[in-house]
Amino acid sequence: MANRDLIGEFVTRTLAELRAHYPRPLSPAEELALIAGPIRQCRNCDLALTRTQAVPGEGHPRARIMFIGEAPGGTEDETGRPFVGAAGKFLEDMLADIGLRRHDVFIANITKCRPPGNRDPEPDEIAACTPWLRAQIAVIQPTVICTLGRFAMQTLIAPYLQISKAHGAATERDGILYIPLYHPAAALHQQRLRDTLIADMRTVRDILVARGLWQSP
Ligand code: URA
Predict the structure, then answer these.
(1) What's the structural domain count of the chain?
(2) CATH number at residue 9
(3) Domain for residue 79, yes or no?
(4) What is the pLDDT of residue 17?
(5) How far, in Å, is the centroid of ligand 1 from the Cα of 184?
(6) Does residue 127 belong to any structural domain of this protein?
(7) 217 is a domain residue
(8) How many A from CA of 24 to the centre of ligand 1?
(9) What is the best residue among 83, 92, 112, 120 to mutate for testing ligand 1's pocket, by most ligand atoms within 8 Å of CB?
(10) What residue numbers bound the domain in which 16 lies?
(11) Tens digits of per-residue pLDDT, 143-180?
C-alpha cells in the first residue's frame, strides 16, 4: 500500500475512533481541539526533545483556505502559535489585501515542532507528523490549501516541483485545490518575490471567485 493510502487509513481510523468515543456528533472546533491536545503531548519523533512547545495550528474550524508552512520558528516555538513573527505579519497583510483576516483561514505547518536551528525537517520527522495535519485537513475540509514555500509544496503536492515554475498554479486532488505560494519569509527580503507572492495571493482569491467558492466560512 502506498504511504499516502496508509496515512489516509490512519487518519480515517483515528478520526472515526475519536468520533465513536463521543455520544453526540462533535463540532469541527471540538474535533480540532481534541486533535490539538495530543499534538501538544506528541513524542513521535526527536523534535519533541528540543521543542519548547508544539504548534498545532490555529484558525477557523471550517476555513475555506488553509495555509501550510514548513515548521515553527523560534517565536512560534516560544508562543505555541504559527506564523507570529515577521513572516506572519506579512501573511496577515496579504490576507487583508484580499479581504480576509487571520481568523478566517487556518494556518499550520508540515511539522508541529521546531527543528533545532530552523533546519529543514527530516523525512522521518515529516512521516511522524503529517498524520496530525491530515487529520486537521479531514476535519476542516478546506476548498483550497496554499502551501508556503518549496518545502510544504514538495511535501503536500509533488516532490519534483520547482517553486519558481509552480507558484500560483492550482492542482486539484481529492476535491481540494492545492496552490503553491512562495514563503512569506523569503519574500520579505526580496522585492521581486514579494510582488509575485502578493499577485499570487490575489490569484487565489480570483480562482475561488471564478469557481463561485469565494465566501466567508
Ligand atoms: N515559518 C514557517 O514555515 N512556519 C511558521 O510557523 C513560521 C515561520
Answers:
(1) 1
(2) 3.40.470.10
(3) yes
(4) 81
(5) 9
(6) yes
(7) no
(8) 35
(9) 83
(10) 3-210
(11) 999 999 999 999 999 999 999 999 999 999 999 999 99
Neighbour-count burial of 37, counting CB atoms closer than 10 A to its CB (0-12 exposed, 13-18 middle, 19+ buried): exposed
| pTM of the shown model | 0.93
Pocket, ligand 1, Cβ cutoff 6 A: 69-73, 76, 82-83, 87, 109, 185
Q: Is residue 150 part of a domain?
A: yes
CA of 71 to the centre of ligand 1 (A): 5
DSSP string of 120-166?
Answer: PPPHHHHHHHHHHHHHHHHHH--SEEEEESHHHHHHHT-TT--HHHH
Paired residues of 107 in beta bridges:
58, 67
Distance between Cα 148 and ligand 1 center (Å): 9
Task: Give the side-chain half-sphere CA count within 13 A for 141.
Answer: 7
| Residue 57 region by backbone torsions, left for phi larger than 0, else alpha for psi between -120 and 50, else beta | left
